[in-house]
Amino acid sequence: MREISIREVTQVVKRLCIEANYSLREDVLSALREALRVEESLMGRKVLEWLVENARIAREEGIPICQDCGMVTVLLQLGQGVRIVGGGLRGAIDRGVREGHREGYLRKSVIEDPCFSRRNTGDNTPAIIYTEVVPGDGLKVTVVPKGAGSDNSSALKMLNPTDGASGVKTLVLETVKKAGANSCPPLVIGVGVGGSFDNVGLLSKKALLRPLDVANPDARIAQLEREILEEVNDLGIGPAGFGGRVTALSVSIETSPTHMASLPVAVNLGCHALRSAEAAL
Amino acid sequence: MLRVTTPLHDDVIGKLRAGDEVTIGGLVYTARDQAHRKLVEALKRGEELPFNLEGQVIYYAGPAPVKPGRVIGSAGPTTSSRMDAFTPLLLARGLKGMIGKGRRSEEVKEAIKKHKAVYFATVGGAGAFLSKFVKRSKVIAYEDLGPEAVFELEVEDFPVAVAIDALGNDIYEETIRKWERPAKDKGRRTRGEE
Question: Exposed end of chain B (fewer CB within 10 Å): N or C?
């Protein structure tokens, strides 16, 4: 068994929290630059220029791209041949989030009790952790800090199986239209289709991790991604919701087998400051 | 490009139209969900507020912590509609402007018209960029709320657009309509299904 100490896990989570918040993903930045080429609205172009400038300031000056540094989701791919030593994995991850948010001057947005006190935990913990056990003796850590503006406008619906691909498209369009400027367009749209009520949400979040210039390997799904993107951009919402051609930068759909009576669909809207960072131990 | 300075007066507000690009100078006050709840509770109890609302502008924002040597952390707008329930009372008590992002309710729009106020929108997710227009920052109330405390910010050339003007024109309805393309054939089956 390969041993990985919790100290290494803490260090990597801390580093990734800071990196994800300071450095906009290269694929997202390229997509913003590409959007500048196609945007016709003057105000839309100005907003896109600001967003490119925003990413530059954040990276060069070491401050978060957005003040909403999110609630942190950590995705682990834990090799079967790995033994975590030195303490608990959950504690190690939360320690990484705590140190990353303190030392990186990232905003602490997590509150402990959703219904009543809504008191801030003060250190942005706990993280939301998903662990997948995979073959091998490595540990892949992906940190996804996601803001509330875009998550609040996301949607999950159990469609009728016969609603098919057009049903998926309709739900995405309704969700984007309703969100308007709230979810900080131009958006990256992650769509999960299939699975069950609980895991389709995770599937839609994983869709946001796929590089923006990579289409789904299934040609029919890739076609659906293109069609939805085109129709979303026909909505006219535009950068910052001020009107324009570019409402979304990309649409990524991930699918999973599902029950014959079900068609779960989750639409996870990602803002233009879509953040994630990963490392392999 | 129009420049306005806070506190805002009716003659200036009267000139602003939805879609105008504007820069703001002077003091603005941050307040978001919990601060709004507290402000409105204080008003209902007849207590004095931590700042005078007369002519003032509230910025819906919860800045990131300040790194040593900086004035403020990243400080972009949050979603305004979460404050809708509290806004009409604040407007009735003298608030003249708000900065945020996204649509407002019909009640807020009516209150903006009634009290001759203005709602500005700026670019969500551009917190690093927007922090450059903040020249001074201090917490003046509800420090226990952390990022949700009320900060007094001195801003210079802070870039916004008029989102709802005092006549009730709304950028999110009018400008977007100009760019919308009608659905080619709604409800068509996707090519994958053919």
Answer: C
Distance between CA atoms of A40 and A244, rounded to whole angstroms?
Answer: 7
Fold type of domain B2-179:
fumarase (3.20.130)
The rounded distance, in Å, linking the Cα atoms of A160 and B57 is 47
pLDDT in tens, B65-93: 999 999 999 999 999 999 999 999 999 99
CA B140 to chain centre: 19
What is the predicted pLDDT for the residue at B187?
46
- Spatial CA neighbour of A248 closest among A187, A179, A181, A158: A187
A65 neighbors A273 (Cβ within 8 angstroms): yes
Least Cα separation, residue A245 to chain B (angstroms): 7
Of the candidates A62, A105, A234, the beta carbon closest to that of B65 is on A105
Beta strand A71-79 with A277-280 is unpaired
Residue corresponding to tokens 């392999």: A280
Question: Which one of A67, A226, A233, A269 makes the best mutation probe of the B interface by having the most chain B beta carbons within 10 Å?
Answer: A67
Task: For residue A252, list its beta bridge partners.
Answer: A190
Place of tokens 């909505």: A235
What percent of chain A shows pLDDT beyond 90?
100
With beta carbons less than 8 A apart as the criterion, state whether B171 and B163 touch: yes
Both structure tokens of A239: 């950068």
* CB < 8 Å to B102, chain A: 180-182, 241
**Could you confirm whether B115 is annotated as catalytic?**
no
Please tell me whether residue B135 adopts helix, strand or coil conformation: strand
Tokens 């969700």 belong to residue: A175
Buried b (16+ CB within 10 A) or exposed e, A150-175: bbebbbbbebeeeeebbbbbbbbbeb
Maximal C-alpha separation, chain B = 66
Please confirm whether the linkage preceding B7 is cis (ω < 30° from 0).
yes
Here the tokens at position B74 are 């990243």
Domain spans, chain A: 2-20+65-146, 149-274
ipTM of model: 0.94
Pairing type for strands B134-141 and B150-164 reads antiparallel
Residue from B20, B24, B28, B36 carrying the catalytic annotation: B36
Across the range B94-117, mean pLDDT stands at: 98
